[in-house]
Specification:
Order of helices and strands: EEEEEEEEEE
Number of strands: 10
Radius of gyration: 22 Å
Low-confidence stretches: 1-5, 233-238
Strand content: over 45%
Shape: elongated
Length: about 240
């Protein structure tokens, strides 16, 4: 009987070159390479300078050096060091960025780890997000658990939401319109509104309004203009 198993072709560039997009097994670019059109593969490894001129779909994408992707990315595991620029959106299971990273659209994943500098033109959503460095997020930063260590200059987001939110400062500061979560601990954060069940504001925080349901702690080195208790008061016995 003839073996009809589908064997996908591989593609590689060593030095300088280009090839047409399509469906591949393993894709590797070492040096300066261009892929013309949409690319789908089991595994993609990029080092040096790579330009992918379309949408990308793969089980795993690893980049080192400088990489640009013109379209959307749908990926299982994304690991990038150096610099990467994705003009479209990113949908992934796991994302790990280190270096200078930019996503033109939204980023959605189960697990996100960001180090260095990161920019997003849309929302960033995950189950767990860990950030160390600086970031600029044009939309919402949302996850069940968010752990941020500010390490640089000015970081920004429109809104931050989650169950447990922790922002600590190594250096730099965060500017955000609103933060909302169950457990909120912030340092070096400027915000219009903070909402939470349990809220702690550490050194360097400047907040217009804090709305808390159960507890609020404010450092002597933090500033809060207005504090509002939203939890129900104990009712007197009949």
């Amino acid at each position: 009987m003839t073996d009809k198993r589908d064997t996908k072709r591989n593609a590689s560039i060593a030095g300088s070159g280009r090839f047409t997009g399509g469906v591949y097994g393993h894709v590797e670019i070492a040096g300066s390479g261009t892929v013309e059109g949409d690319l789908e593969a089991e595994e993609i490894e990029l080092s040096g300078s790579s330009n992918l001129q379309g949408n990308v779909k793969a089980k795993e994408l690893r980049t080192a050096g400088a990489c640009s992707i013109d379209g959307d990315v749908e990926i299982g595991i994304l690991r990038s060091s150096g610099s990467i620029k994705i003009n479209g959106r990113v949908q992934a299971d796991s994302v790990e960025f280190a270096g200078a990273q930019k996503v033109g659209g939204s980023l959605k994943a189960e697990d996100v780890v960001i180090g260095g500098s990161f920019k997003s033109g849309g929302d960033v959503e995950a189950e767990r997000i860990e950030i160390g460095g600086t970031f600029r997020i044009s939309g919402l930063l949302n996850a069940d658990e968010i752990d941020i260590e500010l390490d640089g200059g000015r970081s920004t987001a429109q809104e931050i939401g989650g169950s447990k939110i922790t922002v600590r400062r190594k250096r730099g500061h965060l500017e955000v319109q609103s933060v909302e979560g169950d457990e909120v601990y912030l340092e070096a954060t400027e915000a219009q509104t903070i909402r939470g069940k349990h809220v702690k504001l550490g050194e360097g925080c400047r907040v217009d309004t804090v709305e808390y349901a159960e507890s609020l702690e404010v450092s002597p080195e933090a500033t809060v203009r207005s504090q509002v208790r939203t939890g129900k008061d104990d009712q007197p016995s009949a």
